[in-house]
């Protein structure tokens, strides 16, 4: 029998269509074989092992209703978050940008969207007046805002690239 583990990395966070958080716990039996997803080539934009764990939760591999709902909810969530980031850039709200970067980093990591996750981590750091690694302070808000503008645009492009791949995967182009 599969048993849930006590490791935080074995939990998948998801927000349902009402905005309520759902915590999904992966179990030992939810391991999968590399390459069984049939995902179109996404390079290093998607961590296949992580995404396959989401796919393992689908009851019907042909319909993939559960994983599709998680992925499509993420699409809406990401778009709304990018809109909030744009507004926070206009008001120069670094703290809000850091929080939004942190939020979207977690959501994209849950799905294995590595490039989006990495860019969002940089957004989180720049918003906290740090360098891209989060190790050095950057006291100049203007420098951070310039970096944020560039990194947010990069994250949006990475998101749209992986969104195309996933829409193709779910036959929703």
Describe the structure.
- The chain has 173 residues and is mainly alpha-helical.
- The chain is 55% helix and 6% strand.
- A two-stranded antiparallel sheet has the order 1-2.
- Helix 2 (65-90) runs antiparallel to helix 3, helix 3 (94-111) packs antiparallel against helix 4 and helix 4 runs antiparallel to helix 5 (141-169).
List keywords for this structure.
single chain; mainly alpha; Four Helix Bundle (Hemerythrin (Met), subunit A); two-stranded antiparallel ribbon; 5 helices; 2 strands; AHP1-5/YPD1; phosphoprotein; protein histidine kinase binding
Proportion of helical residues = 40-55%
Distance between the termini: 38 Å
Beta-strand content bin: 5-15%
Unreliable stretches (pLDDT < 50, length at least 5) are 1-37
CATH architecture: Up-down Bundle
The Cα radius of gyration reads: 17 Å
Strand order of the largest sheet: 1-2
Number of strands: 2
Task: State the secondary-structure class.
Answer: mainly alpha
| Quaternary organisation of the protein chains | single chain
**Rough outline:** elongated
Largest sheet: 2 strands, antiparallel
Strand and helix layout:
Layout: E1 11-15, E2 21-25, H1 48-55, H2 65-90, H3 94-111, H4 114-127, H5 141-169
Antiparallel strand pairs: 1-2
Helix pairs in contact: 2-3, 2-5, 3-4, 4-5
InterPro entries: AHP1-5/YPD1 (IPR045871), HPT_dom_sf (IPR036641), Sig_transdc_His_kin_Hpt_dom (IPR008207)
Biased composition (Basic and acidic residues): 1-17
Domain HPt: 63-169
